[in-house]
Amino acid sequence: MNWITIIWPMVPAACITLALVHLRIAFGDGRRAPHLFFSLAAVAVAVISGLELTLLCTTDLARYDVVLRWATVPIAIMVCSVVAFVWVFFGTGRNWLGVAAVTTIFLAELANRVASARVRDDISAAAVGFAPDYGSKDDHQIRSHIFGRACAGSTSPGSLASAA
To answer: Residue 59, Cβ neighbours under 10 Å: how many?
Structure first.
């Protein structure tokens, strides 16, 4: 376990906290739609963050492909809910622009689902190369090689200037 797998889940936790707060407000307030759209956007961001962590940790190319293809669904949900939130909460903007944004993202998702099976059969990857974890021993060796010994493990401005 490294710092990314420890810190990363804090983003979905904050998003779900905000989503639950706005969901509670939506059930108690007369003006519910903006809070529901905000709650939906926050849940979508939490799902996106979880899928990104899955992509960071996976070593199987087939699983990476499946997760990456399905990661576009919560992105589309987030875009649509943010458009709806702005439209309902602020009451500004052109109606046709919001409809055009939602229609475009829907058509892009549809094209992604229809065309991805055909494209994946023609393209293949031999292997996936992984960079070392940030903060690990391998990463420290790479940074010391790039920046010189005076800078290894330190990112202060003085040590960067002395390494150059």
So the answer is: 8
